Phosphonate C-P lyase system protein PhnL (Roseobacter sinensis), 227 residues
Amino acid sequence: MICLQNVSKTFILHNQGGAVIEVISDASFGAAPGECVALTGASGAGKSTLMRMIYGNYLTQSGAIRIGEVDLVQAEPREVIALRREVLGYVSQFLRVVPRVPTLDVVSEPLRAIGTSADEAAARAKALLTQLNIPQRLWSLSPTTFSGGEQQRVNIARGFAHSYPAMLLDEPTASLDGANREVVLALIEEAKARGAAIIGIFHDEAARARVCDREIDVSRFAPKVAA
Ligand SMILES: Nc1ncnc2c1ncn2[C@@H]1O[C@H](COP(=O)(O)OP(=O)(O)OP(=O)(O)O)[C@@H](O)[C@H]1O
């Protein structure tokens, strides 16, 4: 479902004399439906860079990144937008808050974007907000003023509203309390059970051991230094 083939990434720092930083060289791996793959490796190895490439936020110099039938490296911007709407979800630990939009709408928006009825989308959003322990009195408010942990849980509810066939998870359990961490792990298990292919970064080792089927050490894609 998610398949990287011979992928490389180089940053060119135009504001620093055009310095070239090679980060990823010849990476090939993937995640099958129902599988959760953890990216591991030391700080700076390139985990976040790979995630951003798979989501299409960073350009990829060479190779292919296939999500289902679409190669993100070659795709037109409108294909990337459609892919993100229907196929590829991204859950980070940070909510990008849009002022004045009520929490319930923030969470149900991905469903409404794919044509789910307003009632059905709201019902799913309410169920997720309840599961993630966001008190009902907050649902009609914008999450702008919520605590960090509340914003993180709203973001997770939004990320899991639509049943994406492919998902990227960036530290989804970071800084959650025990009960909410448990809810997120159950959501990941549910997503796997319905056949989602997942790639994630999990610094929480116990979480990784529980939900991930395989680990990919990103250091193995470090560019070879010429002798
Ligand atoms: N936008 C960018 N421009 C230039 N260099 C970048 C950029 N993003 C990342 N890098 C470089 O790429 C390398 C990998 O960074 P990345 O953030 O992917 O590592 P990571 O494995 O996710 O680290 P951590 O575990 O600390 O988050 C680093 O050396 C970093 O400086």
Remarks:
- The first strand starts at residue 2 and ends at 13.
